[in-house]
Amino acid sequence: MSLESSPAARSAAIPLPLIDELLGRYGLHRQSQPTPVPGSVLNENFHVDTDDGPRFIRLHRPRASAERIRLEYSLVAWAGEHGIPVSPALADHNGTTLHTFSGRLVSLFPWIHGRALQRETVTLAESSVLGDMHGRLHATLARYPDVGLSRDGSGTNWNTQASIDALNRIDDLIRYYPAPPPEQLRLQGVIRAQLEVLESGVARPASDFANLRRQACHGDYHERNVLADGSGAIIAVVDWEMAGILPPIFELVRAISFVRLFDSPLLEPYLDAYRRHARFTAAECHAGVEMFWQFLIHDTWVFTSRFIRGDRRVDEFLPTAGDLLARFGDPAFRSGLEATLVRLTT
Predict the structure, then answer these.
(1) pLDDT-based confidence at 264, cuts 50/70/90?
(2) Which residues contact 23 (CB under 8 A, 6 or more apart)?
(3) Is the terminal CB of the chain with fewer CB neighbours within 10 Å at N or C?
(4) Which domain covers residue 51, as residue numbers?
(5) Residue 41 maps to which CATH number?
(6) pLDDT digits (tens, 9 = 90+) for 77-96
(7) CB-side neighbour CA atoms (13 Å) of 274
(8) With b meaning 16 or more CB within 10 Å and e meaning fewer, what string describes 87-97?
(9) Other CB atoms closer than 10 Å to residue 285's CB: what's the count?
């Protein structure tokens, strides 16, 4: 374990033999050097030009299971058949969409000529478009049959002692690191603040929210997981690998929090557009805000990824680490957000 990136955690060299063999299964030939797709955190993604146009290649994260990915692909296909714009993995001439090379799971996708929306620059119109698509997703996926999707994903399951142990381990790493730089010391302060909350008695078990209505959800809906055309219309909802059976109100609070919509006039357009398709009860709004607060208390992913696994791809999340925890730690803020949700989604 190390504060620095381990060789295994650093971005690997572009796997040209693997990419060429994958393309060969589709009768394609590479026309350029593949380029990594920026912003990839969990997987290794590449853009490559072929003799039949550009393609998107995904090397799934090493811990991903083939069964889990096939369930994801079934959901994506179903969503596409029911009116959600998606970009399914391409099938080769044998009908195979998920391939294995030296133990790595790999998929090929069409390259979509669109743009991802950018956090901190979302406009009023884009907020409305995002909210409308989120409402459509929830209304549509509510009809999806439960056929084995995960019920513990997207931060909906946690263990208080495990979170405390992980944060204490990282705190020790920073404490005993020779001359830690100022940023690591700042993050140590964030970690200790989270530990203080966890040990204060406010932590609740995930089972407290077991009765919340659940359904199939995208699992990681936010501005960078949709692609828009030049007019701003969404042409594809992408990156479904965290899809699962979740409380839709939890995913809604998670999305507006990750996109940082509550700091501006962007929240109302999002929720107004959302409720054209789906709504909640006042009790769900209260539980959704509290459940997301508990998720924030227990979430250690970015710290574990960076300081224990040495994964530098999460560095983009470090400057704002702790911001949401501090915001939701204010009971007045949580009450205000709940009131807004009740007003605009019930």
Answers:
(1) confident
(2) 29, 30, 48, 50, 55, 108
(3) N
(4) 16-69+87-111
(5) 3.30.200.20
(6) 999 999 999 999 999 999 99
(7) 26
(8) bbbeeeeeeeb
(9) 23
